């Protein structure tokens, strides 16, 4: 269970990007976070594994408080959170297998990592997962030789290699064409079920969010203003989430405060 | 319709480089005055120029035809230069890689970054000839001084450009490694090194080429190699041998430049 309490993130001295945000994700549900650009979706995900350092608040994953871990503790704790990125963030010049094994870098020794002596179990698991998503025959190919959808599959497998307790996906389909995008979304949903893995997805495509998720969270300027089942997301709610220009919205927020 | 088209301008000129016309013409005039003034006051002694011309003629007539009688000496000098260049390139790159990571602002913490930049600036601030003079004083005449000089020269160049390449990397890959819980060294080797590898190889090949050229220069101040052979030939007024050496240097540089150009084109 992931429990986020009073999470605030402020860059510099400006208006906070996340404002006292609370969110709890349990079970193997797939949660989609929607909201316009600048609503703080990306910052929210990155605050969970502290790629972005939260200003205040608490993030607890299955009993571990993440916000006050030391650097070393954080490194070990990050293994428990898998992450998938919009631009895949694969290492283009390395093979698919090396990219997949990169998910194990938090577990194996530096020497084993540098010499590419991956443990047998990891290699077996890599092939198993790659077969599951249909990229096993690419193991020896360079990552930049693959198509967008294949590359994101590598990204997903890399995250799953961590044997994570939760999977974060930051706009995993935004760089893909509609058909590939749907394939990746249904893959994420199926994997969430198969592996009993809670998944949080930032997504721009509301239709896909409604189709594939168990729960939709709507964000607007650092706050959660909608949190319910996809069916409950009405036209009016959508307008709430996406309406308004940033300047106007900020002015309103300022006036209220 | 026609009324509006009449009001639109039909001529356009590129905006002047300096918008203010007074400032612009003042600058042009200033530059012109400066050039005329410096030309008028240049301390050129025309007698010495004509003396020099006849001396140059003597040197050139002494140089023709080039003499390859001491080809053995020439070959030895070249092999020494080549060895200096290879050792300096390998040594320079081994030192440059960690230094470049230190001097990359997006990777290294501030104090390390400043230290790395400082080392690079020091390595770059002196021309190889000056460094060579210091090393010749320190370790004596010969190829060792040359190799040390070119290591410094290589570090200044390779580390600086590699550091700049590291600062341009796609940081998403680093984020991905961090989010998997990878350690510092592993992150560098997995996420950064593959991205900068083509540049590193390119720089290494260019540096080998450049070191070969520079080894001829630093040899003149006593740091061994073909430069030392050339300096000796001049010292003994063997202008024909000196011309032979110069021709071979030009030939070798041309070949090495062509080869390194081809290799660098292939690897990217």
From TrEMBL, chain A:
<feature type="domain" description="ABC transporter">
    <location>
        <begin position="2"/>
        <end position="246"/>
    </location>
</feature>
<protein>
    <submittedName>
        <fullName>Phosphonate ABC transporter, ATP-binding protein</fullName>
    </submittedName>
</protein>
<keyword id="KW-0067">ATP-binding</keyword>
<dbReference type="InterPro" id="IPR003593">
    <property type="entry name" value="AAA+_ATPase"/>
</dbReference>
<keyword id="KW-0472">Membrane</keyword>
<keyword id="KW-0547">Nucleotide-binding</keyword>
<keyword id="KW-1003">Cell membrane</keyword>
<dbReference type="InterPro" id="IPR003439">
    <property type="entry name" value="ABC_transporter-like_ATP-bd"/>
</dbReference>
<dbReference type="InterPro" id="IPR027417">
    <property type="entry name" value="P-loop_NTPase"/>
</dbReference>
<keyword id="KW-1278">Translocase</keyword>
<dbReference type="GO" id="GO:0016887">
    <property type="term" value="F:ATP hydrolysis activity"/>
</dbReference>
<dbReference type="GO" id="GO:0005524">
    <property type="term" value="F:ATP binding"/>
</dbReference>
<keyword id="KW-0813">Transport</keyword>
<dbReference type="GO" id="GO:0015416">
    <property type="term" value="F:ABC-type phosphonate transporter activity"/>
</dbReference>
<dbReference type="InterPro" id="IPR017871">
    <property type="entry name" value="ABC_transporter-like_CS"/>
</dbReference>
<keyword id="KW-0997">Cell inner membrane</keyword>
<dbReference type="Pfam" id="PF00005">
    <property type="entry name" value="ABC_tran"/>
</dbReference>
<dbReference type="InterPro" id="IPR050086">
    <property type="entry name" value="MetN_ABC_transporter-like"/>
</dbReference>
<dbReference type="GO" id="GO:0016020">
    <property type="term" value="C:membrane"/>
</dbReference>
<dbReference type="InterPro" id="IPR012693">
    <property type="entry name" value="ABC_transpr_PhnC"/>
</dbReference>
């Amino acid at each position: 269970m992931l429990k986020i309490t009073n999470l605030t993130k402020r860059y510099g001295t400006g208006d906070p990007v996340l404002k006292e945000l609370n969110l709890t994700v349990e079970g193997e549900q797939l949660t989609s976070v929607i909201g316009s650009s600048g609503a703080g979706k990306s910052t929210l995900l990155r605050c969970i594994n502290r790629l972005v350092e939260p200003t205040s608040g608490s993030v607890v994953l299955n009993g571990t408080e993440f916000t006050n871990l030391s650097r070393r503790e954080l490194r070990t704790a990050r293994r428990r959170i898998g992450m998938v990125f919009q631009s895949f963030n694969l290492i283009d010049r390395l093979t698919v297998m090396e990219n997949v094994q990169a998910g194990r870098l938090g577990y194996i020794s530096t020497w084993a990592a540098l010499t590419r002596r991956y443990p047998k179990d990891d290699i077996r698991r890599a092939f198993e997962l790659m077969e599951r998503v249909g990229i096993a025959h690419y193991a020896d190919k360079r990552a930049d030789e693959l198509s967008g959808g294949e590359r994101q599959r590598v990204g997903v497998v890399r995250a799953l290699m961590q044997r994570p307790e939760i999977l974060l996906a930051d706009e995993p389909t935004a760089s893909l064409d509609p058909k590939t995008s749907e394939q990746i979304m249904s893959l994420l949903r199926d994997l969430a079920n198969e592996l009993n893995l809670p998944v949080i997805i930032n997504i721009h495509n509301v239709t896909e969010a409604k189709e594939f998720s168990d729960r939709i969270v709507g964000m607007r300027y650092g706050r959660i203003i909608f949190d319910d089942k996809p069916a409950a997301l009405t036209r009016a709610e959508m307008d709430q989430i996406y309406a308004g220009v940033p300047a106007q919205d900020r002015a309103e927020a300022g006036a209220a405060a | 319709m026609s009324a509006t088209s009449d009001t639109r301008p039909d001529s356009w000129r590129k905006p002047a480089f300096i918008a203010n016309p007074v400032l612009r013409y003042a600058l042009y005039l200033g530059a012109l005055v400066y050039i005329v003034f410096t030309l008028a006051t240049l301390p050129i002694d025309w007698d010495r120029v004509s003396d020099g011309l006849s001396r140059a003629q003597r040197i050139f007539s002494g140089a023709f035809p080039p003499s390859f009688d001491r080809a053995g000496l020439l070959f030895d000098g070249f092999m020494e230069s080549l060895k200096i260049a290879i050792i300096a390139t390998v040594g320079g790159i081994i030192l440059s890689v960690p230094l470049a990571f230190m001097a990359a602002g997006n990777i290294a913490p501030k104090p390390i970054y400043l230290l790395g930049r400082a080392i690079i600036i020091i390595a770059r601030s002196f021309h190889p000839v000056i460094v060579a003079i210091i090393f010749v004083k320190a370790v004596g005449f010969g190829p060792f001084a040359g190799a040390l000089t070119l290591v410094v020269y290589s570090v200044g160049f390779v580390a600086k450009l590699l550091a700049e390449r590291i600062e341009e990397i796609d940081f998403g890959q680093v984020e991905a490694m961090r989010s998997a819980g990878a350690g510092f060294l592993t992150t560098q080797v997995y996420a950064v090194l593959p991205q900068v590898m083509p540049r590193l190889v390119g720089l290494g090949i260019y540096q080998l080429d450049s070191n070969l050229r520079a080894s001829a220069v630093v040899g003149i101040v006593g740091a061994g190699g073909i430069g030392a052979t050339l300096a000796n030939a001049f010292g003994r007024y063997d202008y024909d041998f000196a011309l032979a050496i110069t021709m071979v240097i030009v030939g070798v540089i041309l070949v090495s430049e062509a080869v390194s150009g081809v290799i660098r084109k292939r690897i990217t």
